[in-house]
Amino acid sequence: MDTDLLDRLGEIGEKTTWSLDKLLDLAHELNVNYIAGHPYPCQALVRAIIDHIPPAFGQRTFAGVVSSHGWSSQTDGSHAKRLAAYRTTGDDVMHRQIRNDPSLISMDDLPPRTQLNAVLRELLVVLEKETEGGTSNDVVGD
């Protein structure tokens, strides 16, 4: 993930009512595991991140974020839709039990970093608007 973006999220985290410490820890751990070439923790961390951020968008689920949020750009909305499809791989990594045959998950199965960066960049936009007095922390139904 883009470290400049994570730095900017850390800065806005000092101004927003949302606690971004867990998000930033997950993102940094994702970067470390990506560099180390560990596909299972990477997939689990991507899943954890997309499951963690919906309340800041006023949603309960990432599917709600994808379908209901007014994205700053159509491209970012498209990135979010494609990222949502990786939830299935995260389910596989986290819930598939031991088997007799080898796993099929590899680093090639991770979503492109542009997708997660686009979603976190949009989160930054949402948080910047909030700190300017524009939004509330109320979560709406899907």
Structural description of this entry:
- This protein has 142 residues and is an all-alpha fold.
- The protein is built from 7 helices and no strands.
- Helix 1 runs parallel beside helix 7 and helix 3 crosses helix 6.
- The protein starts with a helix and ends in an 11-residue tail after the last helix.
Order of helices and strands: HHHHHHH
Count of helical segments?
7
Tell me, what's the shape? globular
Report the sheet-strand fraction: under 5%
User: How many structural domains?
Assistant: 1
Report mean pLDDT, rounded to a whole number.
Answer: 92
| Largest sheet composition | none
Key descriptive features of the protein:
142 residues, single chain, 61% helix, mainly alpha, disordered C terminus, 7 helices
Characterize this entry briefly.
The chain is mainly α and 142 residues long. The chain is 61% helix and 0% strand. It has one domain.
Provide the fold topology.
Layout: H1 3-13, H2 21-36, H3 39-52, H4 62-68, H5 74-84, H6 87-95, H7 113-131
